[in-house]
Amino acid sequence: AGRAKLRSTETASAVVHPDTPDGRSLRRLTTVSRLIARAALRRTESRGAHFRADYPTRDDERWKVHVIDVK
């Protein structure tokens, strides 16, 4: 899947341009959010605050590990 080109984002209070400090912070936040979501979707168990109705129990044998994802 391709990545969308960053553009100015207008919010209720301000416009955030990708080349400003706020824009770079927003880009990093978006990247981290995507990584967290991808890791959560790959995990086939429930653990703590990460609960999945389709996998309601813990699986320590397979998932008591650190999940590392790369771009």
Descriptive key words:
single chain; mainly alpha; 71 residues; two-stranded antiparallel ribbon; elongated
Structural topology:
Elements: E1 9-10, E2 15-16, H1 21-42, H2 60-63
Antiparallel strand pairs: 1-2
Written overview of the protein:
This protein has 71 residues and is mostly helical. Helices cover 37% and strands 6% of the residues. The protein is built from 2 helices and 2 strands; from the N terminus they run ββαα. A two-stranded antiparallel sheet has the order 1-2. The chain is elongated and about 45 Å long.
Mean pLDDT: 80
Number of separate strands: 2
Question: What distance separates the N and C termini?
Answer: 12 Å
Low-confidence stretches: none
- Give the proportion of residues in helices: 25-40%
How large, in whole angstroms, is the Cα Rg? Answer: 17 Å
Largest sheet strand order: 1-2
Q: What composes the largest sheet?
A: 2 strands, antiparallel
Order of helices and strands: EEHH
Shape: elongated
Portion in strands:
5-15%
- Note the total helix count: 2
Alpha-beta classification? mainly alpha
